[in-house]
Design goal:
The structure holds two protein chains of two kinds. By secondary structure, chain A is an alpha/beta fold. Chain A has eleven helices and 15 strands. In chain A, helix 2 packs antiparallel against helix 3. The chains are: A alpha/beta, B alpha/beta.
Chain lengths: 323, 201
């Protein structure tokens, strides 16, 4: 019995059927054989929905089929990530459940990162920086690994300023904070203020950043989530009136909370926020507060949700769904 | 002409008193003839449509020549029809798009496919041509299983996969064989570029 099989001479549909039955480990190993093999695996469209680089854990690829791939894991603090070559890859499959680890000679963390981005059709990575004490890799080694790679989301806890100097371009920025962590230094706050008026598509800030009306009007990000802001209901009222007359044309989604002020007894009064504004009540006023729709003269509609400590603004489509 | 008059799977006709089963006759490219039940044919979308379009009666089946399947040999077609007879009446699987596709190889299929890889290759081609979805699934599963536990170097050997250099060489050879004039034009263009000329035409 012959031990070889001319796989590539099968009809296209049969090749695809063979690929659909490969486990992810077989698929990965197959994809390293040649460029043609890589293209075949890519065309199988076993796509990733996230490729994450966690500075405290290493890289994780999440595939749509439920399989998770881990690589670049280090036990040593602030290490040079390239010293992990050849880099071990661990595949955890769901269907059927299995865990397989392997290495390939010469494959570094960066090699695997680029390879997985290609074969699993995911052109951007998320870069996540934990608190400094938990970093397993040096900032410089991370910069070398992701050099030239597009960053989809950058998540930072502290040292936001330092990290954003290394990685200034991203689609989405998330500035996180632990409950007991101290506030950001003024320098970092200034950087974030600059970011707010930049062109980042999505911004999530879990930091107490002084936002006044002027700041709000200057913001250029379409999607903003600001926690612990210090804005007042009167300022929000003014903001809505200005939006109705053409301010912040790019804004699609704004979420604010005033948790810190709420703790001090301050409440957002929806009557003050909506004073002098023509609106329609939107469905019911449930536990999440009151909802209103407002309309610009050009027909653009927005949904406002107001509770004691949160304010949300979302552009609506024609069928009343959120854009 | 060698004729296999018996059905692929023996059927006791007396055991079916109510309704007489209809059998179709097919002929492979090496002139081997097979009689296959109507129900078994339903496993093959291609053959099912073909016999529907022909509208044969029982008399037609006996009196007219066997339906020729030009590009499948007798050895392969025998396996195909054995599989169809064994799985007749079973639902044809619909691809739900889930990956990895979980396919179990039943014992009968495993025994049927205990064959040389050359014949397995022909069987897959036949399953694809005749559009027998489940046979394609199980036969491809057998090919997929060949990869289990193999290193990339072993995979390359098992699947006869060319290296990048071999692919490049084959591509160049194919280009040269296909269109020598295009190559001349390309060389001329390259030459002009080397000479610093801006316009080609």
């Amino acid at each position: 019995m012959t031990s070889t099989f001319p796989l590539l001479q099968l009809p296209d549909r049969a090749i695809k059927t063979v690929f659909k039955q490969y486990g992810v480990t077989d698929l990965i190993l197959f994809s390293t054989i040649s460029n043609r093999a890589k293209c075949l695996v890519k065309s199988d469209k076993r796509n990733a929905y996230h490729i994450e680089f966690y500075i405290d854990r290493g890289c994780i690829v999440y595939l749509n089929c439920g399989t998770i791939i881990f690589f670049g894991e280090s036990q040593q603090r602030e290490s040079d990530i390239e010293s992990l070559t050849p880099c071990a890859v661990r595949v955890e499959e769901q269907r059927p459940p299995s865990k397989i680890s392997f290495t390939l000679p010469g494959y570094s963390v960066r090699d695997w990162l680029l390879h997985f981005m290609c074969v699993f059709n995911h052109p951007k990575i998320n870069l996540s920086f934990a608190i400094r004490d938990e970093w397993m890799y040096s900032l410089e080694s991370v910069r070398k690994i992701v050099e030239g790679i597009s960053i989809k989301k950058l998540s930072v806890f502290e040292n936001a300023c330092e990290i954003m100097n290394y990685f200034p371009i991203m689609n989405s920025l998330e500035v996180k904070r632990f409950t007991l962590e101290q506030q950001l230094p003024e320098e970092d706050l200034n950087v974030i203020r600059k970011v707010l008026i930049g062109n980042i598509a999505c911004l999530v800030i879990y930091r107490s950043i002084p936002i006044d009306l002027n700041m709000l009007l200057l913001m250029n990000c379409p999607d903003i989530d600001l926690c612990q802001s210090s804005i007042t209901d009167k300022q929000l009222n003014k903001f809505i009136k200005l939006w109705l007359t053409g301010a912040c044309p790019n804004l699609q989604d704004l979420d604010l909370d005033i948790v810190e002020q709420y703790i001090n007894g301050f409440r957002l009064d929806h009557c003050v926020v909506m004073k002098g504004i023509k609106y329609e009540e939107f469905r019911d006023c449930g536990l999440t507060g009151c909802k209103y729709t407002i309309r610009k003269p050009d027909g653009t509609r927005a949904l406002l949700s107001i509770s004691d400590m949160t304010f949300s603004f979302k552009i609506l489509d024609h069928d009343n769904t959120i854009s | 002409m060698s004729v296999e008059n018996a059905p692929v799977v023996d059927v006791d006709e007396a055991a079916i008193p109510v309704e007489k089963k209809m059998y179709y006759r097919f002929e492979s490219n090496d002139k081997k003839e097979f009689r296959v039940s109507e129900l078994a044919i339903q496993q093959s979308e291609t053959l099912n449509r073909l016999v529907e379009a022909m509208g044969y009666t029982s008399e037609d089946v006996e009196n007219k020549p066997a339906i020729a399947i030009e590009n499948i040999d007798g050895k392969t077609l025998k396996l195909v029809f054995q599989w169809c007879e064994h799985h007749k009446g079973e639902a044809i699987p619909v691809d739900d798009g889930s990956v990895p596709k979980i396919v179990e190889i039943p014992e009968f299929d495993a025994k049927l496919m205990d064959i040389d890889n050359g014949l397995l290759f022909k069987l897959i081609w036949a399953a694809d041509y005749l559009n027998i979805v489940q046979l394609l699934n199980v036969s491809c599963k057998k090919v997929a299983n060949m990869a289990q536990g193999k290193t990339p170097a072993q995979l390359r050997r098992v699947y006869l996969l060319p290296s990048d250099e071999e692919d490049e060489a084959a591509k160049r050879a194919a280009q040269e064989a296909q269109d020598p004039r295009a190559r001349e034009v390309e060389e001329e263009f390259e030459e002009r570029k080397r000479q610093g000329g801006n316009s080609f035409f």
